[in-house]
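Task card 7
Instruction: Convert sequence to structure tokens.
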Amino acid sequence: MFHIVSKIFAFVLMPAGIILILLVLAFISKNRNQSRKLLLAALLFFYFISTPFFVDEIARLWEIPPTSIAAVPPHDIGILLTGGVINTAKTPEENIFLGGSADRAAQAIQLYKAGKIKKIIISGGEIPILGERPTREIDQIARYLVVSGVPANDIFKEDQSTNTRENAVNTAALLRKHFAGETCLLITSAFHQKRATGCFIKAGVKVTPYGSNYISSNRTWALVQFVPDTSPMRTSHLVIREMIGYVSYKLAGWL
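Output:
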């Protein structure tokens, strides 16, 4: 139920939802001046959330800064969160199709091979409302780590979580049972790190955040950065959705 309600609520506050609401209000308004203002607001909002420069600035403010691998102190465990790392809707099953968040796994592999982490715990289960998929993401991530050179006996799976809070709570239980006292590096998308780190701290796990899958880039003043495009709309959707998720978790007492 949480997933269904949160997704419906999130749509209303998403860029597409906001534009749709403004257009509907402009259409049904009997006040011509008000209708024009609503249309102008929709147009300005559309420009803002589809322009690379503005969206990049917001994403950069929300994401944690990138950390050089050389500057990362050695940790016992790298906690790798699932979610878009693998495209589980594609077959054949023997293939590993990477998803949009695949950099999470790529960074974990680099950290392991650089000696910054000794073991990797993959945390994340299947969300029922998404329907049954040909493969499980957590299993395919584990396979990807193995074929990339990480020994199978250094990979552990926590496959019961369906959201970030459960990632933290369930991983905390696993750590207490098998890895008490070991240092942990939390690996997830940079825009997701604030919420994820807060959840793990709340669950009693001291983690060092490590960003991956950055959706922002270095600032540039090129003219093309001020020309609307489709890609920034997806980025703005991700950032706003994450901000809503952070506030929701804060209100629920999960952070």
